[in-house]
């Protein structure tokens, strides 16, 4: 018996669901107004024998005690497992990081790497000149840009991908992190192009996403539009990166552009 079976065996689903919604006995089962959608006639049924529930109404879904508390509380499976194990008096073995946690950590690292890359470009790259001018016009200083790790995504279809792949990330990582567009026709290209990037951090200071603003100088934008029109083939992808964003370039920017923004 694995730990989820043990928890299910120890917990009474009727007892658990009753914490959320009043149940009424109906034959061998129990009925209630569905806690997950608004209704006037009960279509939510709990089956004590199988330890399952089902909404036969608008939700048209069901499951066990785990899926019930996940849906009711908005928890992921790990959280549901912890809480129900405690309720059942079952001790969970301490395990190493789950595969999912490892994947999240990897994506967080990737987002942090991307943030550093875009930030570095904004501060140093000649190609980010119009973006720097735009940020200055908005009244932000270099210190502010550094404090908030503002960045610039270059007007290129593959600069970020090239840089991040050179750091060991796969195209799938980039897609999972939302940095690469994966089209049905097989084309893959950088999602963020010619954009001011504003990292969003969680309460622990980790980058979890980014807001972005179009870099507004009209010359840049019209260039970008022309390029987009031209870039229906992948061959055109890298034409935009006058400051070619390879890993070495990123690690050591041209010294002439190092102090572009102080
Ligand atoms: Zn329902």
Secondary structure topology:
Elements: H1 3-10, H2 13-18, E1 24-26, E2 29-32, E3 44-47, E4 52-55, E5 61-63, H3 65-73, H4 77-88, H5 99-124, H6 129-137, H7 142-147, E6 151-153, H8 159-166, H9 171-176, E7 180-182, E8 188-190, E9 195-201, E10 207-214, H10 218-230, H11 247-251, H12 255-258
Antiparallel strand pairs: 1-2, 2-3, 3-4, 4-5, 6-9, 7-8, 9-10
Helix pairs in contact: 1-4, 3-4
Which features characterize this protein?
262 residues, alpha+beta, DNA Primase, Chain A, DNA primase DNAg catalytic core, N-terminal domain, 5-stranded antiparallel beta sheet, 12 helices, 10 strands, elongated, binds zinc ion
Give the tally of structural domains. Answer: 2
Give the CA-CA distance, first to last residue: 63 Å
Largest sheet: 5 strands, antiparallel
- Give the CA-based shape: elongated
Mean pLDDT: 80
Bound molecules: zinc ion
SS element count, helices: 12
CATH class of the largest domain: Alpha Beta
Strand order of the largest sheet: 1-2-3-4-5
Q: pLDDT below 50 for ≥5 consecutive residues: which ranges?
A: 215-259
Secondary-structure element pattern, one letter each: HHEEEEEHHHHHEHHEEEEHHH
Percentage of β-strand residues: 15-25%
> Structural class, judged by helices and strands?
alpha+beta
CATH architecture of the largest domain: Alpha-Beta Complex
| Helical fraction | 40-55%
CATH-defined superfamily of the largest domain = DNA primase, catalytic core, N-terminal domain
């Amino acid at each position: 018996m694995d730990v989820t079976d043990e928890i299910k065996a120890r917990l009474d689903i009727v007892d658990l669901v009753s914490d959320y919604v009043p149940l009424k006995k109906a034959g061998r089962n129990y009925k209630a107004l569905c806690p997950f959608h608004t209704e006037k006639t009960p279509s939510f049924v709990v089956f004590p024998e199988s330890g399952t529930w089902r909404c036969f109404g608008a939700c048209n879904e069901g499951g066990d005690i785990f899926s019930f508390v996940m849906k009711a509380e908005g928890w992921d499976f790990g959280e549901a497992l912890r809480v129900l194990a405690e309720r059942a008096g079952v001790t969970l073995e301490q395990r190493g990081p789950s595969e999912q946690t490892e994947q999240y950590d990897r994506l967080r690292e990737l987002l942090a790497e991307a943030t550093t890359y875009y930030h570095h470009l904004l501060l140093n790259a000649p190609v980010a000149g119009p973006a720097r001018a735009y940020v200055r016009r908005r009244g932000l200083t270099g210190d502010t840009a550094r404090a908030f790790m503002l960045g610039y995504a270059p007007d290129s279809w593959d600069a970020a991908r090239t840089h991040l792949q050179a750091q060991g990330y796969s195209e799938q990582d980039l897609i999972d992190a939302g940095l690469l567009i994966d089209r049905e026709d097989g084309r893959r290209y950088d999602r963020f192009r010619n954009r001011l990037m504003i990292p969003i951090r969680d309460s622990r200071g980790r980058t979890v996403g980014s807001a972005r603003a179009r870099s507004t100088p009209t010359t840049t934008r019209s260039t970008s539009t022309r390029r987009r029109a031209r870039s229906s083939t992948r061959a055109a992808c890298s034409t935009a990166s006058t400051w070619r964003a390879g890993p070495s370039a990123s690690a050591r920017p041209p010294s002439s552009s190092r102090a572009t923004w102080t």
